[in-house]
Specification:
Blueprint lengths: L13 E5 L6 H12 L1 E5 L26 E2 L12 H17 L3 E6 L2 H8 L11 H14 L1 H11 L1 H6 L5 H14 L3 H4 L10 E7 L2 H17 L2 H10 L14 H8 L5 H24 L4 E5 L5 H13 L6 H4 L1
Parallel strand pairs: 1-4, 1-5, 2-3, 2-4, 5-6
Helix pairs in contact: 1-13, 2-3, 4-5, 4-7, 5-7, 9-12, 10-11, 11-12
Length: 325
C-alpha cells in the first residue's frame, strides 16, 4: 500500500487514468486501486446522475471491487450541474482522501472534468440569469451558432479557442458570465497548480477497429440490460427530454425511438455511430496533454495493464510515514 503525505496542493499526489470510452478504464482502475490502497474519483459527467445507470455504463457495486468510488450518484437528472460544481466537490473529496493517507485516483473520459481537477481550475461563481440565457438562445437561433461563437471570440478569444461553435451551451454560458460580471471566464479562472509535482496521468488507447468493436458490443449490452426501460422510466417519472442529463448519449437516441421518430434498430445504429464519434473527440482532447503516458491496451488483460501502472506509481509515490513522525 502506498503511504501518502498530504502536503501542499502542488506536491500532493494525484493519479489519473483517462482515455476514450470502452477502453477498459473501470476494470483497470479498480485493480490498480486495490493494489495501491487508492480511492477512485469519477471524472465522468454522466455518472453524477442518479437513476441513470445502464446508459452511462455506471459500474455496479460488484464491479467496484470494494474500492471507494466518489462523484457517482450525486445529482438528480433535473438538477443544474456543471464542471464548476464538480470541481468544488472534488476539492473537498480529494483533501479528505489525502487526510486519510489514501491515494486519489481520478478516472474518466470527460476531458473538462479531468482538466478541472488536474490543473486546479477555479471557475467563475457568476450566477444564472434565465432571461439573459433565453435571449442568447434565441439570438443563436436567429443568427446561427457560428456567428454567436464569433462574438465570443471577440470578447474572450481564449475561451472561444477551446470551444467548438457546435458547443452552443458552453458558448452561451461564457457570454452569460461576461454580460453578468464584466469579466471573461478565462480572466476569472486560472490554474492554481501548474506544473503539479505529484501528478501521474495514464491514458488507455487501443486500435480503432478493436475500439469500435467494443463500442458496438457495449451498446448491444446496454439494450439487452434494459436501456429502453430505463429511459422510459425516467420520462414517466417526469424528467423532461430537454434536460441536459437526458441529452446524454444513449438517452437522446432512445427518446427518439420512444417518440416514434425512428425505429429501435435505427436508434441503436445512431447510438453506435455517435459513440464512435464521441470516442474520437475524447482522444483528440486528451492527445493535447503531453503529460499523459499512453498505454496500448490492445489484446491485454486489465490486470496486466493495472500492473504496469502500479509498478510505475509505486516507484514515484514513496512511503511518507517517516517524514510525518
Amino acid at each position: 500500500m502506498v503511504d501518502i503525505n498530504p502536503c501542499s496542493d502542488k506536491a500532493a499526489p494525484l493519479l489519473a487514468i483517462v482515455g476514450p470510452t470502452a477502453t477498459g478504464k473501470t476494470d483497470v482502475s479498480v485493480i490498480a486501486a486495490q493494489k495501491l490502497g487508492a480511492e477512485i474519483i469519477s471524472a465522468d459527467s454522466m455518472l453524477v446522475y442518479r437513476h441513470m445507470d445502464i446508459g452511462t455504463a455506471k459500474p455496479t457495486i460488484d464491479e467496484r471491487g470494494g474500492v471507494a468510488h466518489h462523484m457517482i450518484d450525486v445529482a438528480d437528472p433535473d438538477e443544474e450541474y456543471n464542471v464548476a460544481i464538480y470541481s468544488k466537490q472534488v476539492d473537498d473529496i480529494w483533501e479528505d482522501i489525502l487526510k486519510r493517507r489514501k491515494l486519489p485516483l481520478l478516472v474518466g473520459g470527460t476531458g473538462l472534468y479531468v482538466k478541472a481537477v488536474v490543473d486546479g481550475y477555479s471557475f467563475s461563481e457568476a450566477g444564472m440569469d434565465p432571461e439573459l440565457r433565453l435571449r442568447l438562445q434565441k439570438e443563436c437561433e436567429a443568427i446561427g451558432r457560428n456567428a454567436l461563437h464569433e462574438r465570443l471570440g471577440q470578447i474572450d478569444p481564449q475561451t472561444a479557442s477551446r470551444l467548438h461553435a457546435n458547443d452552443v451551451k458552453r458558448v452561451i454560458r461564457a457570454l452569460e458570465v461576461y454580460y453578468l460580471t464584466g469579466q471573461t471566464i478565462s480572466a476569472s479562472s486560472g490554474s492554481r497548480c501548474q506544473d503539479r509535482e505529484g501528478l501521474m496521468i495514464f491514458g488507455l488507447v487501443m486500435d480503432r477497429v478493436e475500439l469500435y468493436a467494443r463500442i458496438e458490443k457495449r451498446v448491444d449490452r446496454m439494450i439487452d440490460h434494459g436501456l429502453v426501460d430505463e429511459v422510459r422510466g425516467l420520462l414517466e417519472r417526469g424528467y423532461s427530454e430537454k434536460l441536459t442529463s437526458m441529452q446524454g448519449l444513449g438517452y437522446k437516441e432512445i427518446i427518439l425511438y420512444l417518440s416514434g421518430i425512428i425505429t429501435l434498430e435505427e436508434a441503436v445504429e445512431l447510438l453506435k455511430k455517435r459513440t464512435r464519434n464521441f470516442a474520437k473527440r475524447q482522444l483528440t482532447w486528451f492527445r493535447r496533454d503531453h503529460r499523459i503516458r499512453w498505454i496500448d491496451v490492445n489484446g491485454r488483460e486489465p490486470s496486466d495493464v493495472a500492473a504496469e501502472i502500479t509498478s510505475e506509481v509505486e516507484g514515484v509515490f514513496k512511503p511518507a510515514s517517516n517524514e510525518l513522525k
